[in-house]
Amino acid sequence: MLSITADKVNLRSGPGKNYSVTGEYGAGFPVEIVERNKNWVKVKDFEKDTGWVHKSFLTGDPHMIIKANKNTEEKINIRKEPGSKNKIVGKACYGVVFKTVQVQDDWVEVQHESGLKGWINSSFLWGY
Hints:
SH3 type barrels; 14 strands
């Protein structure tokens, strides 16, 4: 697993700039390594989309993305401490990216780029 280092990073159909752009990722977006070809890495995201990214746009900094509630307005709870009975400090919807701070059992402490920090049950997340 790796994460994207910058905003507006192109996902390409093959390992090189001459291949067509098939998508775009933002900073922190987590991806799984599928294959390597010199300076290019084939990646897969949480929706199982695949494509190629130049290795200079990838980092080992751990990030996670909300995978729950696709195609709904429903949000998941972000809690002050790990555990479903703890105070809710925020909410997040499908596709929101967080930096991974730490993992404790089935809970992940995350931080959003806005500064919001809290705990989310790992069953709602994809990444590392």
